[in-house]
Amino acid sequence: MKKLFTLSMISLLIFVLAACNKPGAPTAGETSNEASEGSKTNETATEEIVPEEDAKLVLWDNGDEEGEWAKYVAKKFTEEYGVPVKYETVSHTDAPGKLKTDGPAGIGADVFNAAHDHVGAMVTSGLIYDNYFAKEYKERFLESAVTAVSAKDEDELKMYGFPLNIEGIALYYNKDLLAEMGFEPAKTMDELIEQSKAFMDKNPGSYGFMIEPGNFYLVYGFVGGYSDFIFGDNNTDPSEIGLNNEGSLKAASLMERIRDEILPMKKEDITGDVITSHFNEGKLLYYFSGPWAAKGHEEADVNFGVSTLPKLENGEVPQTFTGTKGYYVNAYSKYPQAATLLAKFATSDEMLLKRYELTGQLPASNGLVENETIKSNELNSAFLEQAKYSIPMPNITEMQTVWGGMEVAYTAIWNNAAEPKASLDKGVQQIKEAIESQTK
Prior knowledge:
By secondary structure, the protein is α/β, with parallel strands linked by helices. Helices cover 47% and strands 14% of the residues.
């Protein structure tokens, strides 16, 4: 009710300003599309809104380069609208939990950065407003980013966040090692496995390919590539789980082949740190990771490249997850109009290009994806290409139960503790039981 009341007041204010055009006050822009009568959403809103009188805002964002960008945005916003903005360092992973207590107490940020997989929980808890400019953002931003920051509210899918970036995994490879072997980057998993065998024969103690067997964030690429799903209805219906179907069994079979032919190690011995170390030391041809890994390899002076994941035997590129950070407007904000305007200002192409320059994180804006500065970067092109074969990581609360259930399943498969079908059935059962416990 609070959300609907505030949004109604915003609409009323826009109407009054447009009709009266008060001297000295910002005027609302012309509306190109009128909202349908009785609509509960603001998907057709394209007009500007006006900050409340005497508004002052708090902005939560990460530290380091992202924090420097947030300070820059705050400064520019104040110059543009005369609204002071105080930046505070609260990480995008901590912000949703902190807002649960700080929001109702009236001490939370007006705008904050959060990962998209928290959206479902934040909507259920009534912590955030929906995006007032949803129609404009659906046109401006990549579909996967829009989907990522959207969630169902009373069976209606609404866009809540203002997307900041998009990220996912791709295939890292060592250019020097491939050249020594006379190889080109593998286009298929079959080719990757055969290259790995040849490389390992010539270089004892090294590996052709490594993957964390229990890390479902990585393994899902195979599951999705074989056309299995996590939840029904485009990952919004937790009553249907597809992780022990035919496609998942094919993914499990591929993992067994990788283990048997090129990675004969126990799951517990294949950690992210082990994989990174091998790659930095020139003892690994291939592995899967995201743009966050590039800086470390550059500092280690590795001559590496990135490409889309190799195709499966069905001809499909593995379907990986994408993640999206976004700005969200606190539903308990005393200044929802000013806060909404800040989130919109921060996610303009101008501000997002500045964010890319400071952080290297890829903006989710359609316009910036085609920006020459971004397109000319080899790594950016590879991650953006893989994003075409990706889906947003599900953001419903039930997704949190999947990680543990699938880690149990794929650990058992990898360590030969149980047959794939029995392992996946057990993992899915664990997910179902965890979901049931959430509802009690």
